[in-house]
Every structure is written in structure tokens, then in C-alpha cells.
Amino acid sequence: APLFFPVSNTSADYVNGDWMDPCYERFYEIGAKYIVYWFVNGDMYCEAVVRGPNINYTATFKQEFLVRAEYKHTWCPPPN
After folding, report:
1. How far is residue 21's CA from residue 53's CA, in Å, rounded to a whole number?
2. How would residue 20 be classed by pLDDT, with cut points 50, 70 and 90?
3. Are 46 and 23 in contact (CB under 8 A)?
4. Is 44 exposed, middle or buried (0-12, 13-18, 19+ CB in 10 A)?
5. Please, how many CA atoms are within 13 Å of residue 39, restricted to the half-sphere of its CB?
6. What pLDDT, in 10s, does the model give residues 42-68?
7. In Å, how far are 8, 58, 77 from 53, measured between CA atoms?
């Protein structure tokens, strides 16, 4: 399930990159290959994705809402 970052949360600091830390924690927790970010109705979602044999994958949101994808060896920082 994607993590939800509501635009209505006025106390959140979405300028600082730390807001993505829960996404990376989930990424390493489940052994994911990608993190995808969705921007839907002003709200941000991130989702850790594991590649598997299931070819019938249904994306959480439509492709038009996809704003970023990070691959394990390219973007995602190593776990602490």
C-alpha cells in the first residue's frame, strides 16, 4: 500500500528531502526494486515496488499521476 503525504498537512516540511525517509524505510523493509511517487489531487504518495513473476500487476494510480521512479542502485540511499 502506498504511503500518503497530504498537502493539507501544514506542519510537514516537504522542501527538505527527509520527508521521503519513510518511503526508503519501506523500500528496504520489503526488499523492493523501485520506489514510485504519485501526485494525485495535490497529495503525494510513494510506493515501494517488488518485481515478481505476476504479469497481471495493476498500478495503484493511473500513469498520468506518476511523477518519479527510483531504482535501487541509482537513487535510493543505503539503509542506515
Report:
1. 28
2. confident
3. yes
4. buried
5. 5
6. 999 999 988 777 667 778 899 999 999
7. 38, 13, 26
d(CA 59, CA 11): 30
**Domain locations in the chain as residue ranges:** 3-71
The DSSP bridge partners found for residue 19 are none
DSSP conformation letters of the chain = --EEE-TT-TT---SSGGGGHHHHHHHHHHT-SEEEEEEETTEEEEEEE---S-S----SS-GGGEEEEEETTTTPPPP-
What does the longest C-alpha to C-alpha distance in the chain come to?
41
